[in-house]
Structure formats: C-alpha cells, structure tokens
Amino acid sequence: MAMATVLLRAVPWLPVSVLAAATGLLLGLAGMLGESFAAYWLVLLSLSLASASASFVLDEDAEAVVDATPTSTRRRLAGRLVVVGVPGLVGTVGLLTLGRSTDLVGERFVLVLAGCLFIGVVAAAVLRRSGRPAPGDLAAVVAAVATALLLGADPLGRWVSVLPGGHGRDWAGTAALWSGVILAATLVLLWTSRDPAARHTWTGRP
Amino acid sequence: MSTILLPRPASGRTRSTLGTLARIEARRFARHPLFLFGAVLGLWAATTTRDEVSPSVFDYPAGPAFFVGLLGFVVAYRLTTSTRTSAEAVDGCPVATPVRTAALALACLVPFAAGTVIAALEFGLVRSAALPVNAWGTYGNVDSAMILLVGPAVMCLGGPLLGVAAGRWVRFPGAALLLAALLVAGSMLAGFATMETALPADSVAMRVAHVLTPYTVFGSTAGESQFAPADRAVVSYTGSPAWYVAYLVCLTGLALVAALLSGAEGGLRRRLHRLAMVLTLSAVGCLAFAALGGNQAPMLTQHDGTTVVRVPAG
Predict the structure, then answer these.
(1) Per residue in B133-159, pLDDT tens?
(2) b/e code A22-43 from CB counts within 10 Å (16+ = b)
(3) Is the reported ipTM for this assembly greater than 0.85?
C-alpha cells in the first residue's frame, strides 16, 4: 500500500486529469449534438484524447533512483496502471451516457476505449524502454495521432470496421479486432517491463 | 582629421543571426517525423481517387488543414518547447528571445510551402475533374479558389505559428494535444453543428459562430447533410469564403504577434501591442463581413443547378 502511494505520487496528474477531463467534455458535447456527423467525430477525437491521457502514466523523472529500489519493473508497472482508470472511468461513463441518449455508440464501445488506452500505455512503455524516463509528452502525440488515424481512416474497412457506429452493427469482427489489439498490447507491455537482467525469459525473472 | 564610418554591427549581426537560426529551425521542422508523416498523408489524401458523393469538394481542404496545419501546430509546439530542458544554456546565449521566436516563425514557412503545394495539387485535380454542375453549390470561381486553395494554405501557416505562440506561453505536458483537440472540436462544432442541427442556421449568432474558428466548412453533400435529400443535392452554408480567408490572415498575424511578445521588452513590446490592436480590429471587421456576407441562409442546389433556400428542420 505504501509503495503504491509513493508510485502514484510521482504520476504527472496534471496532463492525465486534464486530458481525461477533455475526453469527458468532448463526449458530453457529442451527446448534445445527437446523432450527427460532428458528434461521431467528437467521439473519435475523445477516444484519441483518452489514449493520450493514458500515455502519461509511465512518466518517472526519478527513474535512476526508482530503478535502484528492490521493486520489480512489473510491480511498478502494475502500480502505475491503476492511473489508467482515470481516463478509463471518465471515458466509460461518457460512452455509456452517450449510448443511452443516442444510437451513435453502444456499450461495446467501451472495448474500443480499452484498446485506445492500451495503445497509449504501450506507446509510452516502448519509448520508455528506449531510454526516455518521461516519455509521456511524445507518447501522447504518437498515440493520439495513431488512434485518430486508425479510427478515422478505418484502414481495415474492407474486412472489418474499426469503429462501426450504432448498436450491434458488425460488432463480432470489431470486438475480435480490439481484443486482438489489447492482447498484443499486453504482450508488448510484458516484454517492455522485463527485468533488464532477465532479457532471455518471458517471465521477467533471472 | 579623418572620418571613420563604422557599419552597424548590432542590426547586421541580428539579421545574420536570425537567418542562421531560421535555417536551423527550418531544417529541424522539415526533418521532424510528424511533419513528414503529415505531409505524405496530405499528399496521399490529395491525390487518391474520390467517391462521387462524399466527401464533397467542401471536405477537401480538411486534408492540408489537418495533416499539415494541425500536425504542424503540434510540431511547432514541440520544437518551441524542445529547448526547455537546456533553458539555462540557451538563455545565456547572446540572442534575445524574440529573435529565437522569429527564427521559429520563419521556419513555419516550411509547412506553409508544403500545404500550398498540396492545396494547389488538390485544386488542380478538382478543376480538371468532371464534377456535377451543382458540385460547388452557390459558390463561384473566386469563392471556390478561396475555399480550396488560399484558405488551406493560410491554415498551414497559421497552425504552426499558433503552435509557436502556444509553446512560448503554455507550459504543461500534453498542452499541444489538448489545444489541438480543442481546435478540432471547436472547428467541428462551428463548421457542422451551427449548420446541420436544428439550430436556426440563418440567425446572426449561428452565422458568426460558423466562421469564428480557424477551420470551417462551407458546404456539404447529401452524404453528410441530414437536411439535404438523397439526390446528390449540395448545401452551401452561410458566410463569405473570401472574407473568411481575410479573417484567417488576421488570426495568423495575431498568432505571430502573440509568439513574438514572449520575452519582448521596451519599444518592441509597445510596437507589438499596437500591431496586435490593429490586427484584432481587422479580425473583428473581417469576421463581421465573413459572417454577414455571402449566403444569408443555407442554400440547397439541386443536381440540375437550381438553387432554393434550405428548409430548416422542425
């Protein structure tokens, strides 16, 4: 508990909370617009912001000090992942509220939100692995642009829609796609959080 | 007795320093991965085959505006804030902050050039395409050039300049994304929500709101407009595209002044304040002409070219 408190104290709460609040604001605006073209794009933009918000949770300016403590990188990662709950909670409440008032999104959009959050965390984890103790600022840009293009351009539209509008439209393929994204992101997170002394194992133990 | 005339080293050095710094910053901008990514995507979006119904010609400016202008905003912000970690060393060098800011502002000519090329390419392709007679709605040649060519080019300069200004004045992680998202959301609300919801689109408040943001849309086709019947009718929104572009130029100037004001002192600061005042008044004037000129209400142009006032919802 004490370790979790210390870990959470180092989180850059300002960008996380401001971007999460902006996510909620955009979803609220989308709800006011109803089922219009602009509302759909506002939902897309809010998902990108949620992804950007999640990118800041791994920032640790005092990495050199923290690395010397007898706590594994995975344990520290697990502690930090709690913070993803902030944009996650705001986004989930916003999407569920929007889903009740319009046909624009459904409850299953929460799965898309989870995938976007994972993309943000993975972008930060990969950049952090490459030697940046506080990769949030760069990872947020990468994650937001990648998510916006993925959702907006719908590159796999011929086979499966990345973000189908409304309830129950082509959801099986979309759910499989985003589940795959989350699974892949989890594997990347496990890989990036390996102990530096145990690079040859997947368990992270020497 | 002899007279020795010495050159003016200070201004000459400033000019050469500015040129050198501007070249360095321009290279940094041109090599930034996000700018290159945006420019390639913008070029791709401008040259790919388009659907006959949607996106309409009114959506085409979104390519350079988003991929070069908006991403240029983020790039400029990051370049401006990139020296923060070495602030002690940078602040100690004998170059004033406004000169460094001016160099960054000159570097914004890189996205401006890229955006102009993309917009010109898009304009040429659209001009050479066999479009339906109602493709441009109520807009003539000048207005169509303003919407598709001049407007996006100005956005590709204004966005990065705003990024420099934001980088000088706003200092917290994630600020670039937050501001970019607010720009997009505001533009979406202004462009579509004022014209495509049950709100009275012909009211003065909605017409002003429609042209208030740095990006707006001047029309739509049946694919997007919930009010247009599905016979490929085109809706032309309210406002004057030419005055809107003039308003954008004023906003671009204001962004430059806001950026230069950071660290400016004495006479320069006073001059910039006066310039800001002139630009603000000009922007208000252009906004008024942009909102109250052009179409007074959304107009519906049928596939045979006949135009009627669009019936409001409800």
Answers:
(1) 888 889 999 999 999 999 999 999 999
(2) bbbbbbebbbebbebbbbbbbb
(3) no
Q: For residues B3-9, give the mean pLDDT.
A: 62
Q: How far is B245 from chain A (nearest CA, A)?
A: 23
Query: Per residue in B164-178, pLDDT tens?
Result: 999 999 988 888 889
Q: Render pLDDT for B204-261 as a digit per residue (tens, 0 to 9).
A: 999 999 999 999 999 887 655 555 555 678 889 999 999 999 999 999 999 999 999 9
Cβ atoms < 10 Å from Cβ of B152: 31
**B196 within 8 A of B220, measured Cβ to Cβ:** yes
Strand-pairing partners, residue B239, are B294, B295
Both tokens of B48, joined, read 């790919």
Question: Other CB atoms closer than 10 Å to residue A116's CB: what's the count?
Answer: 33
**Least Cα separation, residue A24 to chain B (angstroms):** 13
Q: Does B223 touch chain A (CB under 8 A)?
A: no
Condensed to tens digits (0 to 9), the pLDDT of residues A135-170 reads: 888 999 999 999 998 888 888 877 888 877 655 567
Q: In this structure, which amino acid lies at residue B273?
A: H
Query: Considering the entire predicted model, what is its pTM?
Result: 0.86
If you average pLDDT over each of A78-82, B72-76, B302-306, which comes out highest? Answer: B72-76
Nearest to B181 among A12, A45, A56 (CB): A45
Query: Which of these, B252, A141, B38, B235, lies nearest to B46 by C-alpha position?
Result: B38
Q: Which residues contact A55 (CB under 8 A, 6 or more apart)?
A: A120, A121, A123, A124, A135, A136, A139, A140, A142, A143, A144
CA B226/CA B228 separation, integer angstroms: 6
In single-letter form, the type of residue at position A148 comes to: A
Contacts of B125 (CB under 8 A, 6+ apart): B46, B47
CB A86 within 8 A of CB A20: yes
Contact B163, B218 (CB under 8 A): no
Interface of A with B (CB under 8 A): 12, 14-15, 18-19, 22, 26, 29, 33-34, 36-38, 41-42, 45, 48-49, 52-53, 56, 59, 136-137, 140-141, 144-145, 149
Q: Of B183, B20, B192, B3, whose CA–CA distance to B100 is shortest? A: B20
